[in-house]
Amino acid sequence: MGVLDVFLQHSSSASLFGALVVLLLVYIISSYIFSSKGNGKDPPGPKPLPVLGNLLQLDLERPYNTLMELSKKYGSVFTVYLGSSKVVVLTGYKTVKEALVDYAEEFGDRDQIQILNEINKGHGVVWSNGESWKEMRRFALTNLRDFGMGKKACEDKIIEECDYLIDVFKAFKGQPFDTTQPMNYAVSNIICSMVYGNRFEYDDPEFTSLVDRTNKNIKLLGSRAIRIYNLFPWIGKWFSEWKEFNMLTTANRNQNLRLLGRLKETLNPQMCRGFVDAFLIRKQTLEVGSFSANVGSGITNNHFHDENMMGTVFNLFAAGTDTTATTLRWGLLLMAKNPKIQDQVQEEINRVIGSRQVKVEDRKHLPFTDAVIHETQRVATVAPTALPHKTSQDVTFQGYFIKKGTTVYPHLMSVLQDENEWEKPHSFYPAHFLDKDGKFVKRDAFMPFSAGRRICLGESLARMELFIFFTTLLQRFRFTPPSGVSEEELDLTSRVGFTLSPSSHKLCAVSRM
Description:
The structure is a single chain. Helix 9 packs antiparallel against helix 12. With 513 residues, the protein is an alpha+beta fold. The protein is globular, with a radius of gyration of 24 Å. A 5-stranded mixed β-sheet has the order 1-2-7-4-3. A hairpin with a 5-residue loop joins strand 9 (494-495) and strand 10. Helices cover 51% and strands 7% of the residues.
């Protein structure tokens, strides 16, 4: 189904004359934009059409696949037009690394996605720029570390959550079940304990509805309708997906307001429970300082306000739930799909750990298990393209001129499947991360968390979660397809969404202990 099919399927009757006038104006404007030249050589790319740009050449549900194909023709730096918007695409390890690390400042700004910008208006830590972004990122990193990220306190929280998750898996008594919700709830509870100051029960409707709505919105963000809305908001509001996305977002915002309200009412500056408390305390301190200061010498650039708090909480909750939980689900599916590799993981766990509790320090003694986790991240490529970047200044990169303010897509899938970097880029092959003696080896082209200034701020937390959750679950359960389904029949096709999660499936978790 193409762009026009989606439009016709979702549109309601409108004035033909008005539509023709709008299309004529867009044609004139886009023709001017497409013909505009920079101060040097532009990156090559397919010729765009007026209004639509290169949209008819893209698979709107899986654009990352089309971009991979286009890179074979136009090289590792090329241009596509999404509607009238110019986008420079970066592919392959060397090019993406050079841009994000060696040219970190030039490629370090964040570009906006229309539907998300309407909600967060550039606030928070993920979608902001400038001083607000620097302040929010610095504050988030500092406080998440204070509340355990990468430390023993966080390890203890994950281990505790493993016990709750194991009980859920055990309750199915080896019968097939969908791992989506319990995995989402378990992982979400880790970020909740750090952000709100407490975990939630898996049957708490306030918690489960928040997680489920977030998961649904991440799926909607990858739909054709929302992608078209982001490019053509004037037609996109007729789409039911737009209405559903905003309804779910409003519900989540109202629920967060209630949560934050309760935290404000019970705030004790002497007993900081989590990130929200730390933010509220800093906000109060700055407001008092600003009020007490002399006129003209007070704080004029206070980024600690309610919108930044709400935006950052939204960012941490979504990012801290989806990608890690999705990677773990891919890991369990791949184990059921590859029973011999699952045998090797469990043999190593039995030999090194036995029945005692898994700890972070065990990672260095479990090279094969660690390699399987890394290879799962590489093959799953949960985030096929990094969130959109934007050039902060004019830059000449690999001989091409890229103007300030140009949208840039670092294509992470092209890095994680770079044929120049990986022996078997399209296969599940844990040996990518093992040397000839079976010891774990790092790979430079392993970049699932992106790189540079905008690298995922929760990388250390995600790495800890992936190791403890995955190793503990493999220690306690054998994962198999449902009765009557062979390993070959398990589908590894990803579900369409903003991130790539497994298609709907069920697994059996057979207790080993």
